[in-house]
């Protein structure tokens, strides 16, 4: 694969820091530009992040002295200097939509972690193992935007990155009808640490604004079909969700209850999970986990702290599969919210888009 020059928009934030760390050694994507708000403009990455560095690994040396740009004021310069950008910013939704569209119209593709474009019908929302074919809408989006190269592609919400992958192969085989899910979500999902969110020490908060709606609706876009240049959401399975903030640093866990059209045996479910692999595994994409779904037999697994970093934080851990008295089955799922659920998932999506030919270095005609 050729080398791509990439920019990180929102580089100083929680997800932006993950991008910086993940891309420091990436074989295809080289970070040549960092941008954030006007507050960070003109500062070195080290100074702009200041005491906010939240990862246990140090800031990559190659980026520490890079001077940050302003994502809006310097947009034209950024768009012409890189092959595409990753974007994870904390701004009002309408402004994010405007910002991402503007980059795309300047012929700079945007691989986004933000929710602003998730409901735009010709913007693909891709989990690379599940719906890689949704990139088929990109030509229609380019036509709407009047671009040759520019487009926006988004990641789904971090809450659903554990339970949707586990349900996906089961739905294909046995038809999932109803799902009840309770998520137990880490504080990094709010861009916070225990130092910046003291209220979360020794506490549980039973509300995460907008999260339950996203957890119920976004899976239906993932299961949707591409028709006439748009993604038409599926109308099944039906989801109901409760999302709860718990005092852990990283890792979203989900308790799942599922009812099927054709009830499988426990062995059939386990076989589906074990044998599930897709383009990222088959094409050996650099960030793809070798085994996407790992099942743990022990009664007390998966645990957030023990399994969140499995396969570089890109695998999904599943456990405690058993029959239920009201639904057919119940089980537990876990994924790393800022890796698979955010920056890592976006990097894998960019690898997929490059593999499919939707991202090209600008120097290639
Ligand atoms: P965060 O830690 O609060 O970081 C916010 C970033 O946005 C900072 O880089 C900040 O730059 C930048 N920013 C703020 N105002 C801006 C402006 N006017 N122009 C340009 N940049 C601006 O937030 P986060 O947790 O990384 O989340 C970022 C996005 O990713 C959000 O849309 C969030 O919903 C999404 N997301 C987060 C997670 C997660 O697990 N954390 C998971 C999935 C998706 P300054 O430092 O200069 O202020």
Poorly predicted regions are: none
So, CATH architecture of the largest domain? 2-Layer Sandwich
Largest sheet: 6 strands, parallel
Q: How many β-strands, per DSSP?
A: 14
Secondary structure: elements and pairs:
Elements: E1 4-9, H1 14-23, E2 29-36, H2 45-49, H3 61-64, E3 69-70, H4 75-81, E4 84-87, H5 93-105, E5 110-112, H6 138-145, E6 152-154, H7 163-174, E7 176-185, H8 211-222, E8 225-227, E9 230-232, E10 238-245, E11 252-260, H9 266-275, H10 279-282, E12 293-296, H11 304-307, H12 310-313, E13 316-323, E14 329-335, H13 339-355
Parallel strand pairs: 1-2, 1-4, 2-3, 4-5, 5-6, 7-10, 12-13
Antiparallel strand pairs: 7-11, 8-9, 11-14, 13-14
NADP nicotinamide-adenine-dinucleotide phosphate (NAP) is lined by residues 10-16, 36-37, 39-40, 71-72, 88-91, 113-115, 158, 188-189, 191, 337-338, 341-342.
Characterization of the model:
- The protein has 365 residues and is of the alpha/beta class.
- The chain folds into 2 domains: 4-157 and 343-355, Rossmann fold, CATH 3.40.50.720; 158-336, Dihydrodipicolinate Reductase, domain 2 (2-Layer Sandwich).
- It has 13 helices and 14 strands.
- A 6-stranded parallel beta sheet has the order 3-2-1-4-5-6, with helices on both faces.
- Strand 13 (316-323) and strand 14 form a beta hairpin.
- The longest helix is centred in the last third of the chain and has 17 residues, at 339-355.
- It starts with a strand and ends in a 10-residue tail after the last helix.
- The model has no long low-confidence stretch (mean pLDDT 97).
- NADP nicotinamide-adenine-dinucleotide phosphate (NAP) is lined by residues 10-16, 36-37, 39-40, 71-72, 88-91, 113-115, 158, 188-189, 191, 337-338, 341-342.
